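Title: Request for sanity check on Putative aliphatic sulfonates-binding protein prediction

Description:
We are preparing a figure and want to confirm that the structure record we downloaded matches what your pipeline produces today. Could someone re-run it with the sequence below and paste the raw structure tokens into this thread? We only need the token string, no images.
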Amino acid sequence: MTSRTMAARSTSLPADAALTRRRLLTVAAGGALIASTPAFGARTASAQDGGAPERVRVDYAYYNPSSLVLRRNGWLEEDLGAENIAVEWTLSAGSNKANEFLRSDAVDFGSTAGAAALLAKANGSEIQAVYIYSQPEWTALVVAADSDITTVEQLAGKKVAATKGTDPYFFLLQALREAGLSEADVEVVNVQHADGRTALERGDVDAWAGLDPHMAGSELEAGSKLIYRNVAFNTWGFLNARQAFIDSYPTYVERVLTQYERARNWILENPDEAATILSEEAQISIEVANKELDERTNLEIDVVPGDAQRASLEPVIPIFEDEAQLQPGADANAALDALFAPQFAAAVATPAAGAGTPAVATPVEATPAVATPAG
């Protein structure tokens, strides 16, 4: 397996290709460097802030490993507690839930995929992406162990489980489009990610647009097969903040992201401990946790939202339009122009070897790849 930069977005990967953490991620002393910086101490609000918030509400998600490490280690509480600022945590079961929490003012920071953030923004949610928490390969098209489906084209007329408003759903739409199909050619069964796995393994659906760690669990524990993988159709991990919080407390946005950087670098230096945290939090086996982190999560990235994320989102906009995802009057292109607030991540980002040149497996020709069942 050879590392190289991201290939063209239509490139699919063989089933055994992966983003391998231990081979690709080497950070000499990131965690120690960050822990010694003044940013980790309590700081007073800047003149631009509207004072200090009484609380900071942050989501955590099994598809966002840094959020799990941050919550487990209590670093936000350690920093903000010096000013008697409470930290509240809410579990997001998917991008759709994180977007609901952001829209309803239930959280100040929410973890979504890029496509989900863009659609929410276009449809009126007052958010901006302030940090990139991972370059994942967290979704693929999955069939049961005994299925004879091997290509996207064979999904025509079939039932496919997917969680609408999330990256797996948009991954499905992009894969269908690439195969000359559309959503109208399949029956999308809209269920939450964990229920999609259950529906697939019970035989209630023919395929599933899966999400890790549920997808990795289905592979390892039920022999489910990935029939189509494409890293470029995974639209990055976005940490989004409510615009009202950004406007009122910009210093505290930076404070939260400083701790996010601490968590990211800690994972790079402590991969086994990070896998244990994921296993315990998501109540999955250590083998499933390792598969998600070792093979399908790249944290050696530029965390500042920018050109790489824009490039992954621009091709999704026509799908939003063709599949009637946008509300009347919504302008996805204008939303994309206003989506990023890079200044906060730029202020706290720490160097990582190879950042800006994501390491992925050597791509093959753009043909669907059939997985070998885990055994």
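Thanks, this matches our download. Residues 1-48, 353-375 have pLDDT under 50 and may be disordered.
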